[in-house]
UniProtKB/TrEMBL annotation, chains A, B:
Pathway: Amino-acid biosynthesis; L-methionine biosynthesis via de novo pathway; O-succinyl-L-homoserine from L-homoserine: step 1/1
Protein name (database record): Homoserine O-succinyltransferase
Enzyme category, top tier: transferase
Organism: Pollutimonas thiosulfatoxidans
Domain of life: Bacteria
Annotated positions for site Important for acyl-CoA specificity: R348
EC number: 2.3.1.46
Catalysed reaction, written as an equation: L-homoserine + succinyl-CoA = O-succinyl-L-homoserine + CoA
HAMAP family according to UniProt: MetX_acyltransf
């Protein structure tokens, strides 16, 4: 890897508003990134029986696809993330990719060696075709008419994206949480196109409790009068209260009880005189302030129909369903090697859920590497910087690279260095 | 205990509508019960600094107060329960007391030996003065003007109730969940009036996660346009959507993940042809149907202001707060003996929370009996019939009775028989 230099791009940009500070590219960053939008005009037949006539995918790529086209890694996103996996958004220097600590030159997923694709899923709200997009049949936003999607539909759409890039087989398909479900689905539905499948903090299917929390979120959104049956775009409204409550409940499930205790405990927020309570329904505790802020912020940028759609896709995911509930049978034709990672305090998708996948793979004699990281941060741990976790992933990618004969990793950087 | 006879009360009641079936009193039931309403005209000074000018308490009693007045047991209720602890409601034969499996002749809390009082807390919505009651100052429902209450306020109101009955000292004060907090608070604030303190599935204070879930419920209610800032009575509305979502999220926290898996799993509700999904936001899974039903039912009978108030009282409870967070110091003057019970799969108030109380009591050299019941039902387990759990409670009450020189329990009945 070349010596890292701090680049001030402000001097190369005309008419930079004075309040925008010069952007400093930190070591290990892929730098300033911009999405590309790729149009697919062929109809996409969906699991539901509906057909999406055409769609666009928002995509970011990092690193270079090599001549053999065998160094490509697909990163699949979870509920509220996007194609912006790594680097600094050209439009907004504060918008750092959601897995920037994982993906970059010298990082666990080393963009000096791998060509990494981040893709926003259909139905999402960050640039790919979704419920807020224009329905070509009506000239109006799709709204409630946007078709329901499944993880398998996303994989089909991503497979066309691979074709677009001329990638026959990914070195790895990787994701956390819902992203891990997509990686798993890739290995099942396109077995010959996945070299390694990396499934982090995920599950082979939602539990009743998981579905229950999703349903709470959906009822909250749907019963908000500003939802207008999903066609709120035309009304100029946003079901922000419902979306905010949905996010709050979701957020609690991403954190561990212990982590919340450590972060917030029972600390008061702006107490009354003598540290007293206000004895009302305003904010009394830090944790309330935090959750309200998270909920309100989310409701300003996330599309409510997308929230419904993605929680439903989560509910539906269950590759064992067409095999009488037998996950091992569902996995019988996979050809990928696997890395699974779970986190000890993740109560949304606890380690036991990953164990189910590991057992089913072992039953099929697939090579599996499994790491259970003792981390206090609950489900969110998969997004956080943790040296042991990143070392596991980096070590696994070194093995992938060695297997493909890719160049050695630069030893001057990286979490193992 | 007298031989149980099946009593058909329908013949003794004039003009019974033909659709009401004769009521069968099952063995161990306290029988047909009716509440009494006891008015307290002295103002009640509250923790918040506000004053409740007067109030009424809805009360049920079972068994007989003995001449020594030393066999009284106070049962404190949790979030959504009432004074109707045991027996069959005279107005509605289907309305069985919420702890009927625990309280009755020959049961763990044996009404052949103990005089048991069930009391509805101020601020609730089952007969005691609450936000839906008429504010004497305005002639209108209190609504948002109803004062905030704390566990300590409830205890003060209950102490006046004890005075009313001429009870100087309770044989036991007992409760589960929020009811357990009241029992604990009784032992701290009226140490000389509590012989035994029985704290089941409870905690010395809510965690950040607990407060977070309460806040989700409150935001859901408060942001429902039918809430009208708490003064919905005047508008003829009920914030039923908000209340329903609040109940749904609460309900999930009462059940264990495993219990939900066993009860619902991923079973579909009314699937489409060939067992397919409907691919929409209607009910797909049994768990959704169940939670929606629970939420909707709750919203037809529970007052939204009461839900806010009681969740807030839960948040505030922390007897260690005035002792620098030291629970042992908060408990230094208690005179009661203690029974604590927790349930292995209760993730709302897990066993570790009870351990905190046990440790603080032991630090004060108080006699403590502690039982951790290995039960699959999560927090709800404290309400359910479980022979080991009930045997622990019954054994403890036998000890209380022996200590007080009460008559022996009839050996022909009871969970230990």
């Amino acid at each position: 890897m070349a010596e890292l230099s701090v680049t001030d791009i402000s001097s190369s940009l005309p008419a930079v508003p004075s309040e925008i500070a010069p952007v400093t590219i930190p070591p290990g960053s892929v730098g300033i990134v911009s999405p590309q939008y790729i149009a697919f005009d062929q109809p996409l037949a969906l699991t539901s029986g509906q057909v999406l006539p055409s769609y666009e995918l928002a995509v970011e790529t990092y690193g270079e696809l090599n001549a053999e086209r065998n160094n490509a890694v697909l990163i699949c996103h979870a509920l509220n993330a996007s194609h912006h996996v790594a680097g600094i958004c050209a439009d907004n220097p504060k918008d750092i990719g959601w897995w920037d600590n994982m993906v970059g030159p010298g990082k666990a997923v080393d963009t000096d060696r791998f060509f990494v694709i981040g893709v926003n899923n259909i139905g999402s709200c960050f640039g790919s075709t979704g419920p807020a997009s224009i329905n070509p049949a009506t000239g109006q936003p799709w709204g409630a008419a946007f078709p329901m999607l499944t993880v398998e539909d996303w994989v089909r759409a991503q497979a066309r994206l691979a074709d677009h890039f001329g990638i026959q087989k990914f070195a790895a398909v990787m994701g956390g949480s819902l992203g891990g479900m997509q990686a798993l689905s890739w290995a099942i539905t396109c077995p010959e196109r996945v070299g390694h499948c990396i499934v982090i903090a995920s599950t082979p299917r939602l539990s009743a409790q998981n579905i229950g929390f999703n349903e709470v979120a959906r009822r909250s959104i749907i019963s908000d009068p500003d939802f207008h049956g999903g066609d709120y775009y035309a009304q100029g409204t946003v079901p922000k209260h419902g979306l905010s409550v949905a996010r709050m409940v979701g957020h609690i499930t991403y954190l561990s009880d212990d982590d919340m205790a450590a972060k917030f405990g029972r600390a008061q927020r702006a107490p009354a005189d003598n540290g007293e309570f206000h004895y009302g329904y305003g904010v009394e505790f830090e944790v309330e302030s935090y959750l309200r802020y998270q909920g309100e912020k989310f409701s300003t940028y996330f599309d409510a129909n997308t929230y419904l759609l993605i929680t439903r896709a989560l509910d539906y995911f269950d590759p064992s369903r067409s095999h009488g509930g037998d996950l091992a049978r569902a996995l019988q034709h996979v050809q990928a090697d696997f890395l699974l990672v779970s986190f000890s305090t993740d109560w949304r998708f606890p380690p036991a859920r990953s164990h189910e996948i590991v057992r089913a793979l072992l039953k099929n004699k697939r090579p599996v590497t499994y790491a259970e990281i003792d981390a206090p941060h609950g489900h969110d741990a998969f997004l956080l910087d943790d040296a042991r976790y990143h070392a596991v992933v980096q070590g696994y990618y070194d093995r992938i690279a060695a297997g493909l004969g890719l160049p050695e990793r630069q030893q001057t950087s990286g979490v193992l260095a």
